[in-house]
Design a protein that fits this description.
Layout (H helix, E strand, L loop, with lengths): L2 H25 L3 H26 L7 H8 L5 H29 L3 H14 L10 H16 L3 H28 L7 H27 L4 H14 L3 H15 L8 H4 L5 H26 L7 H22 L7 H28 L11 H37 L11
Helix pairs in contact: 1-2, 2-3, 2-7, 3-7, 4-5, 4-6, 4-7, 5-6, 6-7, 8-9, 8-10, 8-12, 8-13, 9-12, 10-12, 12-15, 13-14, 13-15, 14-15
Length: 415
């Protein structure tokens, strides 16, 4: 292959990736479409804020309004409102610090030092959150405005103007976020669970064929151990997606529409996420046991073959969660429980073969005890997941039925 061919393929790959991004943005909902939506809404809010500040109010510092509108454009209406309150509070605090010290001591360098110290100290207040640094930013801008104005009345007016412009920008940004396709990320919780389930399923799918063939090499078990440890890093992003989904329903008018009124809520997803988190920890313990135990014995291969059958059945259970969908939650939960029953049979076979082979479950140098314990724990978690999803699906169906036929009698004739 010539160097020119390699370069051209690299350039083609760089060009096709943006094309795929745009296709995903226009063909299906997801992060790409959400990104475009936030950009469009931010541009709209900034434009409206600029027009009001520059054309209507003829402000001397109109940029404060569009800057504020864009700053508080968040992934959920709840966050927009929360950040608006914090941002306005930070700006007001910064302006008040400057106003107090400026009128008392005058616009000199020593005054600026005290303004900076006090504003930076207030910015550390935990209630302001990520908007804490805006206290100092507002104070510095206020100091600049204060020094460029002539006369106390003009200085009061300019400082008050900053607060008014920030309020206008925050109000416009929040209103645009509420009225123009307010983000409702119910599926974000599902995506987080799917990602964790994919990671678990892929690891199990790679492990069981190798164990079925015999005792794995140390390089192989070391790779499994490293993958299980890396999988734990995905727990944080999954929980972040769940929090985003929960927040997106707060203060959101779209949740009053019929399709969203029948949403089962997030308690089940939170429970499932917690159970998946525990399964990843158990997989980490399981792979550590396989990796640390290097002594061979006659029972190792037949035991691992049975254990491979168990992991294969558990992999099928995890695969159901990789396609978790609230619209088909009931059949998915029922299928998951059926597969869990099959996996439980394979677990019993693992226990039976350990008794038949008379392997030691307490010997630290052998992996049998760890593998049997983790198999039991894995089944407890997957059974729990199935029960939680089944109950959530039935609850959603009952709620949907009661909304469609309120006041009707039950099937047995009782009210």
């Amino acid at each position: 292959m010539t160097p020119g061919t390699t370069t051209s393929r690299t350039e083609t790959g760089r060009l096709t990736e943006p094309a795929r991004w745009w296709r995903r943005a226009f063909s299906c909902s997801g992060d790409e479409r959400d990104t475009l939506l936030v950009i469009g809404k931010s541009a709209l809010a900034a434009t409206l804020a600029w027009v009001i500040a520059y054309d209507v109010l003829d402000s001397h510092a109109p940029a404060f309004a569009p800057f504020s509108a864009v700053l508080i454009m968040q992934v959920s209406v709840y966050r927009s409102v929360l950040q608006s309150l914090r941002y306005v509070g930070a700006v007001v605090a910064g302006v008040l610090v400057q106003a107090a010290l400026g009128f008392l001591a005058g616009p000199d360098v020593l005054t600026f030092v005290f303004v900076a110290l006090i504003a930076l100290a207030i910015g550390r207040w935990h209630i302001l959150g990520v908007q804490g640094p805006q206290v100092a930013t507002a104070a510095f801008f206020a100091f600049s405005t204060y020094t460029s104005a002539s006369g106390d009345s003009q200085r009061f007016f300019r400082l008050g103007e900053i607060v008014v412009l920030v309020l206008i920008g925050c109000v416009i940004g929040t209103v645009v976020n509420v009225l123009v396709v307010p983000p409702l990320r119910y599926r974000s919780a599902e995506y987080g669970i799917r990602n964790l389930a994919h990671t678990l399923h892929d690891l199990l799918a790679d492990m069981h064929p190798v164990l079925a063939e015999g005792v794995p090499e140390q390089d192989t078990t070391g790779g499994w151990r490293a993958r299980a440890a890396r999988a734990e890093d995905m727990i944080g992003p999954a929980r972040s997606r769940l929090r985003t989904a929960e927040e997106s329903a707060l203060l959101n008018p779209r949740r009053l529409l019929r399709p969203y009124r029948e949403h089962p809520g997030f308690q089940a997803y939170e429970a499932v996420l917690g159970a998946l988190e525990r399964t990843l920890y158990q997989m980490a313990s399981l792979t550590r046991g396989l990796d640390r135990s290097r002594e061979e014995d006659e029972a190792r291969q037949p035991f691992l073959q049975r254990y491979a059958a168990f992991l294969k059945s558990v992999s099928a259970v995890a695969e159901v969660l990789t396609t978790l969908d609230e619209t088909t939650l009931l059949p998915q939960a029922e299928r998951l429980l059926r597969l869990a029953d099959e996996a439980e049979e394979r677990r019993r076979e693992v226990v039976e073969v350990s008794h038949r082979l008379a392997v030691s479950l307490t010997e630290p140098s052998a992996p049998y005890g760890t593998l049997v314990i983790e198999a039991t724990r894995l089944m407890e978690e997957f059974r729990y997941i199935g029960d939680v999803l089944l109950e959530a699906a039935k609850k959603a169906d009952r709620a949907s039925l009661s909304r469609r036929s309120p006041g009707t009698a039950s099937r047995d004739g009782r009210p």
